[in-house]
């Protein structure tokens, strides 16, 4: 069985967010424990497992995502990585439909090599900023939003891009917060530059201290910044050490996420699902 490591939301190796992708045969998924153990062994922020659905009228592949410690409801970069593997290996072409915990998600490949994901828009609910959030981040907070059950994170707006880039949160305190993880964001300092807003994501409670590029977070960032900036089409920079760009298009209750991907490792899985 093959396992591939794909850098997602980047056009060059060793940037963006690496995800492991395992394409399974048709039939039931292996047991959850086996899937989780392999994800822990790989130890990337996400490992994606996909199996074909030849008899399904609604979806082409079933798709699941695991961090090193748990299964998650929604993951953007590992979905992009899976679509890239399906396209590059000839296992699928054009638009691919995935059956997931968050419903049917689609991935459409373009001639330029980019892939556009169609995800549910996160329903944002503004909530009071607790002192525990300020203390965990070590920064003042302008606003905070709950991102709903699919994403499950706390979206926090801070003063400026420099604050996002230099943030050094107390990860143990972040893990104790009531949300799965924390998305920290601010408007780009250069208003006419290559990106409109910046973000970082911290998820120590699910085994991901800092995620390099978080596709699912952009289903919350897109409605926030589209509302702030008055435009439906935006580009976000996730300002992790690896960095990555996510182009977003807000379409009501759906958000399109566009990016590139590069396969960096293609190997044989000797013991696994």
UniProtKB/TrEMBL annotation:
Keywords for this protein: Isomerase
Presence of the UniProt keyword Signal in the record: no
Active site per UniProt: 46
Pfam families: PhzC-PhzF
Tree of life domain: Bacteria
GO cellular component, as recorded: cytoplasm
GO molecular function, one term: isomerase activity
Coiled coil: none
InterPro entries attached to this UniProt entry: Phenazine_PhzF-like (IPR003719)
Membership in a protein family: Belongs to the PhzF family.
Protein name per the record: Phenazine biosynthesis protein PhzF family
Native source organism of the sequence: Streptomyces radiopugnans
């Amino acid at each position: 069985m093959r396992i591939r490591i794909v850098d997602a939301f980047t056009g060059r190796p060793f940037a963006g967010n690496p995800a492991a992708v395992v394409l399974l045969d048709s039939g039931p998924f292996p047991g959850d424990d086996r899937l989780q153990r392999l994800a822990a062994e790989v130890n990337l922020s996400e490992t994606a497992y996909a199996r074909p659905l030849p008899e399904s009228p609604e979806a082409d592949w079933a798709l699941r995502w695991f961090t090193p410690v748990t299964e998650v409801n929604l993951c953007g970069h590992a979905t992009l990585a899976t679509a890239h593997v399906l396209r590059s290996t000839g296992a699928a072409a054009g638009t691919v439909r995935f059956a997931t915990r968050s419903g049917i998600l689609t991935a459409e490949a373009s001639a330029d090599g980019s892939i556009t994901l169609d995800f549910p828009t996160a329903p944002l609910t503004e909530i009071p900023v607790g002192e525990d959030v300020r203390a965990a981040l070590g920064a003042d907070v302008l606003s905070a939003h709950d991102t709903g059950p699919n994403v499950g994170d706390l979206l926090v707006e801070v003063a400026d891009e420099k604050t996002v880039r230099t943030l050094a949160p107390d990860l143990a305190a972040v893990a104790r917060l009531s949300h799965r993880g924390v998305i920290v964001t601010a408007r780009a300092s250069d208003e006419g530059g290559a990106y409109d807003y910046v973000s970082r994501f911290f998820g120590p409670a699910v085994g991901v201290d800092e995620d390099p590029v978080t596709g699912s977070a952009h289903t919350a960032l897109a409605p926030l910044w589209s509302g702030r900036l008055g435009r439906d089409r935006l580009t976000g920079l996730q300002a992790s050490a690896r960095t990555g760009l996510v182009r977003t298009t807000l379409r009501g209750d759906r958000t399109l996420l566009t990016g590139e991907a590069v396969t960096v490792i293609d190997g044989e899985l000797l013991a696994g699902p």
